[in-house]
Structure formats: structure tokens, C-alpha cells
Amino acid sequence: MDRRTLLAGAASGLALSLAGRTALAQAKEKVKVGFVFVGPIGDGGWTFQHNEGRLAVEKEYGDRVETIYQESVPEGSDAERVLTQMVLAGCDIIFTTSFGYMDATNAVAAKFPNVKFEHCTGFKRDHANVATYNARFYEGRAVCGTIAGMMTKSNKIGYIGSYPIPEVVQGINASFIHAKKVNPDVTISVVWAYTWFDPAKEADAAKALIEQGVDVILAHTDSTAPLAEAAKTPGVIGFGQASDMANYKPSPRVSSIIDNWAPYYVKRVGMVLDGTWASTDAWEGIAGGEVQVGEITDAVPAEVKAKAMEIHDAIAAGTYHPFTGPLNRQDGSAWLAEGQVASDGDLLGMNFYVEGISGEIPK
Amino acid sequence: MLMLEKRPSPSRFWNWATPVLAVVLTMLAGGLMFALLGKSPTEAIRTIFWDPLFGEFAWYFRGQLLVKAGPLILIAVGLSLGFRAGIWNIGAEGQYIMGAIFGAAAGLALYPADSRLIFPLMVVAGAFGGWLWAMIPAILRTRFRTNEILVSLLLVYVAQSILASMALGALRNPDGGGFPGSRNLSQWASSANPELIAGTGMHWGVVAAMAAVIAAHVLLQRHILGFHIRLAGQAPRAARFAGVSPGRLVLLCMGISGGLAGLAGMFEVTGPAGQIQIDFASGYGFTAIIVAFLGRLNPVGILLAGLLMALTYVGGDNAATNLGLPAASIQAFQGMLLFFLLALDLLSNYRIRLTRKEAA
């Protein structure tokens, strides 16, 4: 076969696969769903929860869905190939579950307009077949931050950041604001791990924080390593992140933020099945059930638990927003006036610490 | 009783037979592993090795093989020159990163200009960045006799930190909504390194890799420098008598391998990867070391080894998605290939003999 016929074959193969899809644009008998995971399902955290969502989709629709997934897909040039490969395998909708897949998701979406793409934690919807979704994790942080502020004896809480992106900065700010509310002397130290999933690095970060005198650790990475590290030092507590991490109950894990993707995945796959899917930007929190706060254990005194639940319930009822003024930026300039609530736009682009946090966001 | 007897000179037959045998053994042992995981071994092996080349979607995967193999071959060819001369550049990953940063920075400094000259400028900047990063261990070795293995390796971690800082700072996309990462270079016409013929995966990096294979082949066979490289590796004393300057050779070999690694990084960041990102480095620089040895430090061998390595990645991902294999099993499978290759290497230098136990 010479190059010319090879190319012609390639072109017609592409055309065929596209034509095959156009014919079935409306309601479907059966859909194939793809999931691209940034870590292994066994991380016990972020990817584990997305996989729980995948299993919920299978359970809900039974024979009408088939799901495929790939673990540990690097957030670089490989992502585009894995996405294309899922399209070729016949997927009707593909969920890409990490912010680093943003450009790859949009690039592949441009080539296959009849396949739906859902990108988690990003903001780019360059094409009509790309939707984005995220959860208001900062609402859970407000609850954990309250517990952290009341529980710390050294008045030092620590935060393991993954990447300095708005979502993570929101979490740091929300944790600090609420710790400070209940404990004016509290300070927060942030360590950047530059990874979502690397148990060794995450454990090192936790160790470094503990050595600095930190006795409450919050993490924004995907594994259970920070809790495992906290368990080695008596008196140090932490929180389940992304998943309940119940194995570390009652201490060091005193509570957790649980990402509950199942309702969203079930809903969106259902929309593909009945032909009503459209590109949207979903951002639900505690009220919508996407963010859950795990059981607060008895390692925490009753009044701390009561205070934390008070914040939780107010957020759930919609009567309280974790970013309510007066709040100043780190440099002292005014951000939110008394009673003013942060706009979603402000939160989605958040690239500054609030007043009282020392250190800089890496630039 | 089995005995190992050193061969007077490495066996030519086994030198080329061991890679093939290693692949066969990997298929057997890997098949066993897949069977233990409850998957059909023949289907798994077929999905990894056959489908990307001849399966239903081969028209897509063949191109992806070139995309994946291109940087591996380009880097490995450069490394092989030094390895032949006993100069161990282990830090190609760092040179690859610096090439990407220099290349991207040169282009982004002129954003959003529209000129055909920008891409060639970026190519030069990329090669320069890689060369510069390789010159650090090279000069430290020639001046202070430091160990280039350690220095080049440790500079990888320095390069990774610079990469993170670039993605968050100097090269960050001002329109990126607070996210790290540069502008997408593959979406800006002046800096894009697109597929030259749609659907083939052939981009400038692949062309450069092919050119490097040919150039290295000619260099080693016909050029006095190639002769010096081979001589320095095989008989360092003789090389010195023949007037080979060891210092000059170090600078040349490190420079060439660094420059090629930088080029690979530059072609990757303007093409398949698209942007300077915190985790842009995907391990090509380290994998290329394996490719260089798998290809017996021979340019043509490296070409084949790079394609084989790319096949295990592309096919491995294919199997992971379509057969639901865990990512770790694919990595274990790739590890087996290297394990068998290294183990079988024994056969090129030793022969196995069956001896009877003699009475004392």
C-alpha cells in the first residue's frame, strides 16, 4: 500500500466513523461511556470517587450502558491519544476528570462533534459538545477549617496544595477564614506538592508540616498518604480528602470532604440516552449533594462538632456563603465589603490569598 | 551443572537475537500475568502488538506510533554517540525540558506576531537550550573531573523546578483564567508544529528523528569523529595515542545529545503537547536511555527500538482502555521487556555450558 492509498483509507475511515455517529444523534438505545482518570482507582481519594460515580452509572442503567475507563493518564500529549482511542472504541460521552486534560478535551472534541465531552474542573467549552463540571469543595473546607481552628493546640494548621490553581486557592482561603473565625491566633502553612497523586511526595509534605509544629493537616491531593503520615504522630489530626477515607477513623481522620459525582454522572448519561444533553457548566456544592461532609468522629469534642455542623447546615440551607465580607486580600486591599458575597467569577479566577495568610502563591 | 564462560568477543548473533527473544519472552510472561488477571492472554497481546499496526483503527494508531517514537528516537540517537564513547549523559530529560522552555520562550516573546521565521527561530532556541543544559555537566567534567552521570541526572530535577516556575510565572498564559500553563503553541500558526500530512502523525520532530538516524549512521561509518567515538569506547588508551582529545570528545558528545534532546522537547511542546505545563516532562529523556540500549547503540537499531517502545505504550494504553486492564499491569508488562532484555544480554558476552561435576 503506498502512502496515497493509506491516506485515502485514513480519511474514509474517519468519515465513516463520523457518519455512523450522525445517524444516531437523537435518543439512544444504548450508550458507551468513557472515563479518563489521572490516578489509579486505588488512590482511595479523587479517582476512587470518580470510579464510584462510574459504577453508579452502570448500576442505574444496567444493560443500556457500557463503561470503559483508563487509569493514570498523564496530563500531556498522551491524553489526546487516549481520548481519541475512546472515541474510536465507540464512546458516546467521555468524562475527563482532571484539570490538565482541558486542552486535550477541547482538541479532540473539535474532531468528533457528535461525541459529548465533559471536563472536570476546567473552564474551556470551546465547542458545543464540551461541558464542564466541578463541585464547590470550598464549602466543605469551611466546615473542616472550623474544626481545624478549634482543634489545633499549636495554633498552626497545614495545607498540602497540589497545583496553585483557583480551585485549590479557594480551599486554602476557605479553610483559613473559618479557622480564624473560631481561633484568631491560628496561622496556616502551605506546602505545594505539584502533583495530584504521588503518595511519597504527599507523605513528605505532611512530614515537613508536622516538623514545623503543625497539628492539623488539610490536603488537596488525591491519596491517603497525608493521613497515614499524620497517624504516626500522636495529637496530629487530618481530614479525608475527596473520599471518606474511613480507614483512618476515628483519628487522625476526624471528618472528611467527600466528592459525590454519582448523581451528576447518572444525570448526564441519562441525558445522552434520551437525547437532551447540552453543553453546560455545573458547579454544585453541599446543597446539591455533590460535596458531602463525612462523619465527624468522637475524637472531636461535642461543641466543636456542633459548631462545624452549624456552618454545614447554614451552607446547605443557602443562608451562609463561605466567602462573605468583610474580607481583605493578603496585601490588605479590600476584596469584599461587609455582608458582600463573592461572585462565582471571582472564585473561578481566584489567584490571591486572603489577609492573614503568609507566603506567596507560586508564580 | 550450568557454567558461564566468557566469550573472547561479544557474539554478533546474540547481540541481535536477544532483543527478539526478549520480546517473545515478554509476550509469554506478560500473557501469563494477563491470564492471572482473568483476561484472555492472546487478546491482550493482540491488542497491544497487533491492533495498533493492523487492527480496525490502525489508520489512527500508526500515526500515533510515530508521534510517540519521534522524540524517543531523536534523543536516543544523540545519547548513543556518547554511550559508545563511554560518556554517560543520563540527564536527557532535563535537556528535553530546557529545549522546550527555550523554544517556547523564544516564540512567546514574539506573540502574537505572524511570521514564518518564528518557528525556525524556536527550533534554534530549543536546540540551544538543550545544548546549554548539557554543557554544564560536560564542562564540569572536563574542568573539574566531576562525574557527568550524577551532574546530568541531578540537573533533571533542577530543570523540572524551572519548568514548574515557568508554567506558573514567566510563561503563564495571561488569558488562562488563573490556571498554570503557557499559551497553546500548537494553536498559534507561527509556532505550531502540526502534522505535515494529515493523519500520518508525521510532524517536524519525526522528520528530525529520521534525519538524525541517517546522520548518525553516516557519522559512525564514514566520518573521522565517528571513528574517534568508537575508538574511545573500545580502546581508550589507543584513542589517546591516535590523537583523540578526551575533553573535546566529551564536549562534542554531550553537546550533540543535549542539542537533540532540546530539539525533541521543542518539537513536542509546539506539537503534540501544545503548552509548557508543570508536568510537560513525560519521561521521554529517561525512556530514551532504554531505547538507545535496546537498539544496541546503533542508529538503525534505535529506530526500530523506538518504534517498538512506542508500540508498547500506544498498544498498552489501547489494552488498558478496551480490556479494562489496570494501569499497573501495563507498566509491569513494559518492565518485563527491559528485564528480559538485560537478563539476556548475558548471552552476548557469555556462553552457557553444561559441565559435569568433577570429582575432587
From TrEMBL, chain A:
<keyword id="KW-0732">Signal</keyword>
<dbReference type="InterPro" id="IPR003760">
    <property type="entry name" value="PnrA-like"/>
</dbReference>
<protein>
    <submittedName>
        <fullName>Nucleoside-binding protein</fullName>
    </submittedName>
</protein>
<dbReference type="Pfam" id="PF02608">
    <property type="entry name" value="Bmp"/>
</dbReference>
<dbReference type="InterPro" id="IPR052910">
    <property type="entry name" value="ABC-Purine-Binding"/>
</dbReference>
<dbReference type="GO" id="GO:0005886">
    <property type="term" value="C:plasma membrane"/>
</dbReference>
<dbReference type="InterPro" id="IPR028082">
    <property type="entry name" value="Peripla_BP_I"/>
</dbReference>
<feature type="domain" description="ABC transporter substrate-binding protein PnrA-like">
    <location>
        <begin position="30"/>
        <end position="308"/>
    </location>
</feature>
UniProtKB/TrEMBL annotation, chain B:
<feature type="transmembrane region" description="Helical">
    <location>
        <begin position="117"/>
        <end position="140"/>
    </location>
</feature>
<keyword id="KW-1003">Cell membrane</keyword>
<feature type="transmembrane region" description="Helical">
    <location>
        <begin position="95"/>
        <end position="111"/>
    </location>
</feature>
<feature type="transmembrane region" description="Helical">
    <location>
        <begin position="201"/>
        <end position="220"/>
    </location>
</feature>
<feature type="transmembrane region" description="Helical">
    <location>
        <begin position="300"/>
        <end position="316"/>
    </location>
</feature>
<dbReference type="Pfam" id="PF02653">
    <property type="entry name" value="BPD_transp_2"/>
</dbReference>
<feature type="transmembrane region" description="Helical">
    <location>
        <begin position="249"/>
        <end position="267"/>
    </location>
</feature>
<keyword id="KW-1133">Transmembrane helix</keyword>
<feature type="transmembrane region" description="Helical">
    <location>
        <begin position="149"/>
        <end position="171"/>
    </location>
</feature>
<keyword id="KW-0812">Transmembrane</keyword>
<feature type="transmembrane region" description="Helical">
    <location>
        <begin position="12"/>
        <end position="37"/>
    </location>
</feature>
<dbReference type="InterPro" id="IPR001851">
    <property type="entry name" value="ABC_transp_permease"/>
</dbReference>
<keyword id="KW-0472">Membrane</keyword>
<feature type="transmembrane region" description="Helical">
    <location>
        <begin position="57"/>
        <end position="83"/>
    </location>
</feature>
<protein>
    <submittedName>
        <fullName>Nucleoside ABC transporter membrane protein</fullName>
    </submittedName>
</protein>
<feature type="transmembrane region" description="Helical">
    <location>
        <begin position="273"/>
        <end position="293"/>
    </location>
</feature>
<dbReference type="GO" id="GO:0022857">
    <property type="term" value="F:transmembrane transporter activity"/>
</dbReference>
<dbReference type="GO" id="GO:0005886">
    <property type="term" value="C:plasma membrane"/>
</dbReference>
<feature type="transmembrane region" description="Helical">
    <location>
        <begin position="328"/>
        <end position="347"/>
    </location>
</feature>
